[in-house]
Amino acid sequence: MIDFPQINPVALEVGPLKLHWYGISYLVGIGLGWLYLRYYVSKYFSSWPRNAIDDLVFYCSVGAVIGGRIGYVLFYDLQSFFRDPFLIFAIWKGGMSFHGGVIGVLIAVLFLRVRTNRTIFEVSDFLVPAVPIGLFFGRLANFVNQELWGTPSGVPWAVVFSIPTSGGLPRHPSQLYEAFLEGIIIFSLLNFLIRRRPRAGMTTSAFLILYSIFRFFVEFFRAPDSHIGYINGEWFTMGQLLSIPMLLGGIIIWYLAATSVRMK
Q1: 3-state class (DSSP) for residue 234
Q2: pLDDT tens digits, 75-124
Q3: What is the mean predicted confidence (pLDDT) over 8-17?
Q4: Gap between the Cα atoms of 140 and 25, Å rounded
Q5: Among 13, 25, 99, 149, which residue has the fewest nearby CB atoms (within 10 Å)?
Q6: By three-state DSSP, how is residue 84 classified?
């Protein structure tokens, strides 16, 4: 059992201005992802000039933030949205959904497909190797904020979070599980894949499949949102439910790519 280290979620405070670690994680994730695309991934996608990479990072970052916020409200807090539709703009209250962010990025990819005259998978295959970088830092920020913790556990590395709503129980540090699986492992596997120059769609497919499997698995060790609970008795969570379409989509894309069906 490990007591949660005393980490202030506010990294810097100057008068009324507060800079949170969560905001820093977004900036670091986007910044490192941009550098990774510019100086490494572009070696395997020679048709991407630097100005196009800059546009890709900008539009997809905006799509991820807007989609993540809208997705959270619609997927996880719909009743509050019906009471107050303007809640969807209250980003200062927190709440982001990765699955909603995926939808936002997809819209950005469709926009860039038209703007750059590329196919959908020429855009998404180039982008997704950098996504695990943002996931890694985002999950570390979840840990620092003491949110999205795991279920009670007696494992030696269980963490006792200091905020009262955790119940003072030792819990799985599910945020760190996700940082490792969704961040480090997926990043390493996608990096390995792109060096072999796979067919169009396979890199995108691999990300969708790996993320959905890892997220579905970790949800067994992660406490569900208190206002939603489990979807079916005591088994499935909203995160698992939303991961199923991602898994199916990834499998379909891989099949089409493997059978050389032309995809646009």
Answers
A1: coil
A2: 777 777 677 777 676 665 567 788 888 889 999 999 988 888 898 999 99
A3: 81
A4: 8
A5: 13
A6: coil
What local confidence, expressed as pLDDT, does residue 89 receive?
67
Residue position matching structure tokens 């695990």? 132
Q: Which helix (H) or strand (E) holds 14?
A: strand 10-14
Q: Which residues, in sequence order, are CB contacts of 101 under 8 Å at separation 6+?
A: 63, 64, 65, 67, 68, 71
What pLDDT, in 10s, does the model give residues 209-253?
A: 999 999 999 999 998 876 677 777 667 888 899 899 999 999 999
Cβ burial, residue 102 (10 Å; 0-12/13-18/19+): buried
pTM to 2 decimal places: 0.89
* CA gap 256, 264 in Å, rounded: 11
3-state secondary structure of 30: helix
Task: Using the Cα atoms of residue 47, residue 52, residue 56 and residue 57 in order, give the sign of their dihedral.
Answer: positive
Proportion of the chain above pLDDT 90, given as a percent: 52
Domain positions in the chain: 14-145+159-258
Q: What stretches of the chain show up as alpha helix (H) in DSSP?
A: 21-39, 50-76, 78-83, 98-116, 120-127, 131-144, 174-178, 186-194, 202-218, 238-258
Name the DSSP letter for residue 89: G
- State how far the Cα of 69 lies from the Cα of 89, in Å rounded to an integer: 8
Return d(Cα 107, Cα 114) in angstroms, integer. Answer: 11
Contact indicator for 257, 201 with CB cutoff of 8 Å? yes
